[in-house]
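Contributing new complexes? Match this layout with pyridoxal-5'-phosphate.
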Amino acid sequence: MTEIARSTTEWQQADLDNYLHPFTDYKALLDAKALVITRGEGCYVWDSDGNRYLDGLAGLACVNIGYGRTELGRAAAAQIAELSYFNSFFKSTNPPAVRLAEKLVDITPAGLNHVFYANSGSEANDTALRMVRQYWMLEGQPEKQTVIAREMAYHGSTVAAGALSGMPPMHEQAAVVPDVQHIQCPYQFQYGRDMGEEEFGVLAARWLEDRVLKTGPEKVAAFFAEPVQGAGGGKIPPRNYFAEIGKICRKYDVLLVIDEVITGFGRTGKWFASDLMQIEQVDLMCIAKGITSGYLPLSAVMVGDRVADTLVEKGGEFFHGFTYSGHPVSCAVALENIRILDEEGIIRQVAGVTGPYLNQRMKALSESPLVGEVRSCGMIAAVELVRDNETMEPIADNMEDIERYTEAFRDLCLEQGIIVRPIGSTIMLCPPLIISEPEIDFLVDKMQVALNGFEKIIQ
Ligand SMILES: Cc1ncc(COP(=O)(O)O)c(C=O)c1O
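Output block (do not edit by hand):
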């Protein structure tokens, strides 16, 4: 039955009546009303009034190959016709899940030779937490259960992933599990503006060592970290940070879990940011989002030999998994997405052309007195807004007002036909990896217009 077209107001009212959105203040949405997105193609989406936006956020940092690639639709349709679903629980498997596992082992860093499938980044991080704790139990060190993560980290929103995330408002809403600690993140703009990058990198890594020693190395199971902190505001660590972190993890026998949910599948100009940042001896790697370019839900934990060997040899049954682990349709779509990323040279283009171009264009925004810092890494970029970049005074003295201001900035961007993400005092960009240089010009020019408008709001 074809539905009669609805007006924007009708969509918004029905949305308010029935749909509880993720990470939303429901009362605030009553006044603001949702933006109804109805169509996407390439780097653009359209709303229900026909307005076009350049999506500077790639959906939610996931639509790496852009919207509307019908090859992915065809891959899904073919797989649905062949085998729409089967479980992987009871000594069963399916060809797309096996083929994708081979492919993932091939493109991820050496030593990550096994794949555990889930459906979201949150579930991947939950899985990683259970694996590290199970690993140390099986290795006869049951006291090694404490996990260290970082402030402003985002690892997802299930109870365990929320507990791993370094976001106190989530902890206050029951995202808590025992023995998870947080250390400061390598956010030089806040914690080390007066230091050289390398010196700060050593200092920030030492925060991990201090905490391991304070807790007792015999109790510390793992360290969880995103290569670039995404939902924490596009925070890029000093170049030497992860080399130092690696040394500390090895020295105290702490497993290293790298969350590449945003940074994977080309976002930083390499298949994985672990390659870019030379993060060595990764024990577990969480991947999601760009694995299917967001066309279907899928995530995975890449499991290093050390943990996999123990789980296989000593583990017995691993009491963990999901109905849709290794879903054949999601896996078929992921394979097609990876083929496109590879064969069309999309990641090389980010590394060699569009990533440096975005960086160069974004840096020009620093001329505004309201810009304290511009950071970028491949197709992740962030602008740190301040009241005055001479003094670096924050745009407001409490988080509620800061967020009100940066949401106003986002609205100015929407008026200009671009989608950006406000995070605290930061404006974040994560465009599709296929964005062209003229589209980057459009994005940055419109951000400049929004900055000019913002000057009036902030006075
Ligand atoms: C680094 C990181 N890890 C985990 C997650 C959670 O992923 P999901 O929303 O698919 O559960 C996100 C989501 O933005 C993320 O950025």
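Reviewers usually confirm one structural detail per submission. For this one: Residues 437-458 form the longest helix (22 residues).
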